[in-house]
Each structure stands twice: as C-alpha cells, then as structure tokens.
Amino acid sequence: QQVAVLNKQIGAVEIGKPNSAVDLRDQRQAVLEQIAAKLPVSSEDGTNGMIKLTMKDASNNDVVLVDDATVTGPVTFTGTGLTAGASATAVQFSSGSIYGALTARDGALQDMRDSLDNLSQQLVTAVNAAYNPSSTSGADFFDPSGTTAGTIQLEAGLTPSTLVAGAGAAGDNSLALAVAAVANQTFSTSGTPADLIDGTIGQYYGGAVSSLGQSLSTMNTLVDNQTSVQSLVTGQRNSVSGVSLDEEMADLVRYQTAYQASARVFSTIDGLLDTVVNHLGTTT
Q1: What is the distance between the alpha carbons of residues 193 and 126, in angstroms, rounded to a whole number?
Q2: What pLDDT does 147 receive?
Q3: β-strands 89-92, 42-45 pairing
Q4: N or C: which end of the chain has fewer CB within 10 A?
Q5: Are the CB atoms for 120 and 144 separated by under 8 Å?
Q6: Whole-structure pTM value
Q7: What gap in Å lies between CA 182 and CA 129, rounded to an integer?
Q8: Strand 82-84 to 89-92 pairing
Q9: For 149-197, how does the pLDDT look when each residue is reduced to its tens digit (9 = 90+)?
Q10: With contact defined as beta carbons under 8 Å apart, do 135 and 167 qualify?
C-alpha cells in the first residue's frame, strides 16, 4: 500500500518533469528494501516515474502486487505459503525472512518436535510396561493416550496414596527398580518389535539437542557470511549513489568564492559609477 501511495505521488509530480520527485523516490526505495527483506520482489518502470511490483508463480509467470498506484490484491499467508495478486495466485519464493521462518518451522524445529514426540511416546510405553507389567486398566504410571511432548501426563488415578513400589509383600520394590532401569534401557528402531528411538532415553535426547544446536550454529555462520556480503554491497552502492561530504564541501567553497567574486565586481562597478556621476567634471 505504501508503494502504491508513493507511486501516485511520484506520478503526479513527474508529469512532464521526469526524475524530479527525488525525495519521494528515496522514500519508495526505502519501502522497497523493507519488502525485499521479506519477499523476493521485482520492479519494472511504469509511466511518470511509477513502478510495477511483481513476484513469480510456479510457472515463472509474473504475479502483479502493485500496478502503478493500485494494489492488485493482498499478500495472504495460507499456512504453508503465500498467495498474491488480483486472483490470489500462489507465489513461489526461496529467499527473504518469511521463507527463512517457514524453512525453520518445517525443518529443524519440526525435526525437534518429532524427536520430542518420539521420546515422549517411548518413555510412556517403556515406563508403563515396567510399572504395570500385567497391563491392568487404570494402573499405569503415565496416561497411555498422552503420547506426545504436548500431551504427556500421569495416569488420572495416580496419587501419592495409590503409587506403589512393588506388587508383592511390604518392602517389595521390584516395580520401582524396573522403572529406574528404563533410564539405562537401550532401544532400537530396527528391533522386534521396533522401538521409536535408538539408544537410551538420555542418549536420544542428547542427540536431538545436539542436532538442533548444530543446525543453529550452521545457520548463524551463514547469516554472518551473508551479513558481511550485504555490508560490502551496501557500501559499494553508497559509494556510487550516496552524497560525498567532501564533494559537497568543495562545491560550497566554490560557490562561496564565486559569490565573493561577484560581490567584488558589483562593488567595483558601484565605485566606478560613483566616480562618474559624482566626481567627473568637478572643479577644484
């Protein structure tokens, strides 16, 4: 919307005066850079200094976002991607902060969620098997239906008074020992029946955290590299298009000297005229 508004203002100023709306063009460029940080957009020159803003669809055809002073349609997030343009066309993109957020959500973060869900389900299954070997209904340690990291919880009927350490006589702690042994139990996804994780619970959790940390470290390194490239390119652009204070100061001195010279000329002419008018022909 900001681009469309600025387009309209630029178009009104530059009718018959190309490239005259310098301040408005600078404002539009700043907005375009903000948009480009989120989405890979392209611009094309239009009439009277206005531009057309586009993205690409799956067939590499242009999807127009802004046509001169008109926003053709909203950019809408569908949950998995974006639609844009007058007909809500799905757009393709592989750069920008939105793409980065979706990649993280569906990549490393989803892998971590899956790992935690597998860990939770394996923990529920193994502890319940150790605590309730006879599979008596309602006698589990964990609620068997809560098999994800977001739903894991104790069995509804488990209280300090119903919690048991063994199934035999007083002092029997066989169940407690069986539950404790789960911490050192080695699981295998290739076993029979197949488990959900490989290694012990501690090993699997440590591996999941390490994998996320490695992914984060790799991404941070890439971000640092790209930030350095961006700074270099921005510096090169500013050296070409930016204002040089040295050049501006040199121009200021030149204009000041020219003004002083002009003032000297007028002062000299004024003196000559004074002599001609007031002193020539005067007798002493």
Answers
A1: 13
A2: 92
A3: unpaired
A4: C
A5: no
A6: 0.69
A7: 10
A8: antiparallel
A9: 999 999 999 999 899 999 878 888 999 999 999 999 999 999 888 999 9
A10: no
Q: Write out the two tokens for 83.
A: 């639609």
The CA-atom distances, in angstroms, between 25 and each of 16, 20, 283 are 16, 9, 68
Place of tokens 């589990």: 140
Which amino acid is it at 233? V
What value does the mean pLDDT of the chain take? 90
**What angle, 0 to 180 degrees and rounded to 10, lies between the N-to-C axes of helices 97-106 and 22-38?**
10
Nearest in space to 157 (alpha carbons), one of 174, 167, 146, 143: 143
At 54-94, the pLDDT tens digits run 999 999 999 999 999 999 999 999 999 999 999 999 999 98
For residues 6 and 26, what is the distance between their CA atoms, to the nearest angstrom? 10
- ∠ CA 267-273-277, nearest 5°, is 150
Going from the C-alpha of 125 to that of each of 116, 145, 181, 196, 258, the distances in angstroms are 14, 10, 14, 10, 91
Is the distance from CB of 48 to CB of 15 less than 8 angstroms? yes
3 state SS of 200 = coil
Name the packing angle between helices 174-181 and 108-131 (round to 10°): 160
Residue 251 CA: distances (Å) to CA of 23, 241, 242: 21, 17, 16
Dihedral sign from CA coordinates of 125, 126, 131, 135: positive
As a whole number, mean pLDDT of residues 225-246 equals 81
By the 8 A CB rule, do 98 and 39 touch?
A: yes
What SS3 class is residue 209? helix
Alpha-carbon distance 43 to 54, whole Å? 6
Residue 102, judged by CB atoms within 10 A of its CB (0-12, 13-18, 19+), counts as middle
Residue whose pair of structure tokens reads 């991607």 in the numeric block: 81
